[in-house]
Amino acid sequence: MRLCITGTPGTGKTTVAKILSEKLRLPIYNLSDIVKEKKLYKSFDEGRDAFIVDIEKLREFFKDKHRFIAEGLVAHYIPCDVLVVLRAKPDVIRERLKERNYTTEKVEENVEAERIAYCATEAFENFSGKVFIHIDTSNRTPEKIVNVIIEGVKRGGIVEEIDWLEG
Ligand code: ADP
């Protein structure tokens, strides 16, 4: 199984991927690490303190891999069988990212990205696999999220309606 986990920073991708990889016995790829290690980037954006990922190189790296969990902000660009999009309330994202050594600007940029479903929309529009899982992690433990994902895979997908712009 090729399972990718995407979502705004702070939604819990790394945490969930670790538990899932143990349960499903699949090797795990953290995309920020792989992008750096294998030089799968075009350049480095000093302003954002982030690598600009070369999507073609990223796809090439995963081309011959058929059993993996890949997690990261660009995971939805990798061809996969199961695409998981983790969502979390913008306030939850803010609290989680404040714990990191991010600037306030970077925290708020990500909070806004989650509010407008930036990553989820990109993921949905790019998806060409079989199983799409879109879930709210805000009030769930990582273990619970993993169970929901496994259930989603069995059911052929789960798409929770999530709209932070409402209400
Ligand atoms: P990402 O990989 O999406 O940036 P992380 O897995 O690094 O997110 O999680 C961000 C922070 O939120 C970490 O401190 C982690 O322990 C915490 N966290 C992740 N998932 C949950 C959850 N379901 N409930 C509470 N805290 C969580």
Provide the CATH architecture. 3-Layer(aba) Sandwich
Hetero compounds: adenosine-5'-diphosphate
How big is the Rg? 15 Å
Mean pLDDT: 96
How many strand segments? 8
What's the number of domains? 1
Secondary structural class: alpha/beta
Tell me the series of helices and strands, N- to C-terminal. Answer: EHEHEEHEEHHHEHE
Tell me roughly what share of residues is in helical segments: 40-55%
Strand order of the largest sheet: 2-5-1-6-7-8
Task: Specify the CATH class.
Answer: Alpha Beta
Please give the alpha-carbon distance between the first and last residues: 38 Å
CATH H-level superfamily title: P-loop containing nucleotide triphosphate hydrolases
Q: Which strand-content bin applies to the residues?
A: 15-25%
Unreliable residue runs? none
How many helical stretches?
Answer: 7
CATH topology: Rossmann fold
Shape: globular
Largest sheet: 6 strands, parallel
